[in-house]
Design goal:
7-stranded mixed β-sheet, about 350 residues, alpha/beta, 14 strands, globular
Amino acid sequence: MTSAPSPCAALGILVQCRPGFEADASAELTAAARAARFTGETDTQPNSGFVIFELTAPEAHDVIRRRLDLTRLIFSRQAFQVLAVLDDLPDRDRLTPLREAIAATGERFSALLPETPDTNDGKEQSGFLRRFGPLLEDALAKDGLLRPDSPHLPRLHVFFEGPRRAWLGVSLASEGSAWPMGIPRLRMPKEAPSRSTLKLAEAFLTLLTADEQKSTLRPGLTAVDLGAAPGGWSWQLASRGIRVTAIDNGPLAPSAIATGLIEHLRADGFTWKPKKAVDWLVCDMVEQPSRIAPLIADWFATGRCRRSIFNLKLPMKRRHEEVERCRALIDARLSAAGIKYILRIKHLYHDREEVTCYLTRR
């Protein structure tokens, strides 16, 4: 893959994912590119933390954006259109060749995102990125290529595959994660019963728009948490002033009960039903995804909840196929009920062998 011609066009698409999920990210990206009528080949290296779809011929950025919605990719933490790849970067001066290659694209940018794969080798470069990122940012500002006051401009990704190889790419703020590498910097609250609370916090930030967060996470709303113990998700809702009915035969942590907004009922999450509709249904039960998807769809179809965030625990293999099977189960139930809906699915940073879903009416 060589640098893109001028005026700059995209050579391909690079998707960052959790190491070990390259096959799923590749299958999904390939299917999406084929559906968008792009030809090319996918390059996938096991446990590399990223996947590349190399286009047969360069394509204009707006053509790719119009035909391929990168935000719909489930196993992508971060994605961008590739402008160039630089090999054999000198150890003592990476700045000069990068600066020249970025200028050669003919683009200007609103932000710089220095990134590496989320692997052990990539993490060894984190110290270098902390030092190098500000130097590159200052240089691009001096060159007139970095304009933070112009948010309509694309963002520049500088993805260091290794110390001597870097991929240059672009994305709009609406296309990719706001965080470099798609990794949110969330602090674990001291009072939270478990680290699972971070999954729900990340889900709110990733799957809901800013307006949706403002309108649907207000104090005084109601929620049900199926499979709540020890209470990480219930605590996350209660911390926002939402009243929660926590359903689980297991105990809740004292810090969850201490919120004063959580009622714990020892019951079976698959059979318990509320007396009246709630604003939120959340579910992080360790069950087969083929059981969870119909359960959530039924709550939604019968009007027991207005919106839902839930996890689907995936098998070790053919994860992408399992997600699509669950999507079909949800669609069958809601279509039969005549309900138009929005379903967003993402493999979050705090997820492991699971994906997180957001379901609401259209």
